[in-house]
Write a structure and sequence with these properties.
A three-stranded antiparallel beta sheet has the order 1-3-2. With 202 residues, it is mostly helical. The longest helix is centred in the middle third of the chain and has 40 residues, at 83-122. The chain folds into two domains: 2-101, Fic-like fold; 126-190, Arc Repressor Mutant, subunit A. 69% of the residues lie in helices and 4% in strands.
């Protein structure tokens, strides 16, 4: 490994990390666990270079492409070249970073939407019942059938002694404000998520 250190001195971390990983697997010093150690070495180099979260996501990329991962080790060893594995690594890093970016964006949108609901409630654009419905739809984390939603115990308590017209009016108000969507399959969606089916008009 000392020769590898000398050969990769001054090489960017995004190239150096997979090279260390690959060369360690070629050496294969242990009876077992070489893959895990190689991935830890790779992640350590990336972390030291300032990549905080992608190294851990990269491990998932390897596991999701495990057959290609092992095939490239064998291919590079037989052909005495390393480019294919480095390219594989970089493709994984790009995919991992994009996935993390999308997750962060989704989380930010979720937090902003929660704040929007709170603001609408505090400004009295929606009443406490409507606010409770919008928050519960958001908390579901997935589209929920309208009938199932209305059959839940908390919803029945919410509209105890109120008419069905009041219940319909509350939902219509939320939909008109874009805080809740109802699709053509009669499923409720949070207003911050685009349904995968056509939205019914309020």
């Amino acid at each position: 490994m000392e020769s590898v250190v000398g050969q990769t001195e001054g090489v960017p971390a995004l190239i150096r990390a997979p090279l260390f990983h690959l060369y360690f697997e070629w050496i294969h010093p242990f009876w077992g666990g070489n893959g895990r150690v190689g991935r830890v070495l790779e992640a350590s180099i990336l972390l030291a270079a300032g990549f905080r979260y992608a190294p851990f996501a990269q491990t998932n990329y390897y596991l999701n492409h495990i057959h290609q991962y092992f095939a490239l080790f064998n291919r590079c060893r037989k052909q005495g070249e390393n480019t294919a594995f480095v390219v594989f690594f970089l493709e994984g890093m790009l995919e991992s970073i994009n996935r993390l970016h999308n997750r962060v964006n989704a989380l930010v949108e979720l937090l902003l939407f929660r704040n929007l609901l709170r603001d609408r409630h505090e400004s009295r654009d929606i009443n406490p019942r409507q606010y409770a419905i919008a928050v519960e739809v958001l908390n579901q984390g997935a589209p929920v059938p309208l009938d199932q939603f209305r059959a839940s115990p908390w919803h029945k308590v919410l509209y105890n002694r109120l008419t069905s017209k009041t219940m319909q009016r509350d939902l219509r108000q939320l939909r008109s404000l874009g805080l809740v969507h109802l699709d053509e399959n009669n499923r409720l969606w949070p207003g911050c998520i685009e349904p995968d089916a056509k939205i019914k008009r309020p």
